[in-house]
Amino acid sequence: MEKLSNERRIIRLEETDSTNRYLKQLVREERPEEGSLVIADYQTEGRGQMGNSWYSGRGDNLLFSLLIYPRQLPANESFILSRVTSLALKNLLDSFTDDIRIKWPNDIYWKDKKIAGILIENDIQGKEIDNTVIGIGLNVNQQIFPVDLANPVSLRQITGIQHNREHLLELFMREFFLLYRDLQEGLKMDIEDEYMLDLYRVNDYYWFEDSKGRFKAKIETVLSSGHLVLRTLDSDEERRYTFKEVSFMN
Description:
Blueprint: E1 10-13, H1 19-30, E2 37-40, E3 62-68, H2 79-93, E4 100-103, E5 107-110, E6 113-125, E7 128-138, H3 155-159, H4 165-184, H5 188-197, E8 206-210, E9 213-222, E10 228-232, E11 238-241, E12 247-248
Parallel strand pairs: 1-2
Antiparallel strand pairs: 2-3, 3-7, 4-5, 5-6, 6-7, 8-9, 8-12, 9-10, 10-11
Helix pairs in contact: 2-4, 2-5
């Protein structure tokens, strides 16, 4: 990756409510350089997509937010940043284990268990993105999770060994900025193709559920807007969904 500015901020916190919230406030006050990071050992109000919460044990996992300025990227094409981020996480985890997939829109799964989540928040100016804060929670060394969490897993549980969080962060930054550079160089289609190849439950029929009930379908594509397009098995009907409008069923 290209060398990041020496002026970028790297803030390490023992505890905060949310690394995304902390970094967004910093952007309002200082507008730090691209590549600035806020890293925390613990979040009291960790958040996921659409108001979901994100739980992490103190000091066990990698919790951080990254700042970028994707200038010239139209706001209606912002989902490409979700693809870049999820692919960077997948590429990082591929170094340690097999069976890593991206569950639409951007959860990272090992087999049928969730190992990482992403929260991307864009500040829009007119029709373009002014800045983007990318929040990531990666389960690294946690071995015991609350019983009410549906399907969590950590890298330590998968590999049987403890991992250095700083090293994982360095690997992520390398993978992210390689893909981000590809995006800046106009290789958007390559990123979209790779994302589709790495999707969870792609290329076969599975059970889903929407407001009308359960149905069997396969993933046809994910649009540049981020919409998931499914093809039903029974009626060969094309259905299009935004996040939270459809659920993956076991």
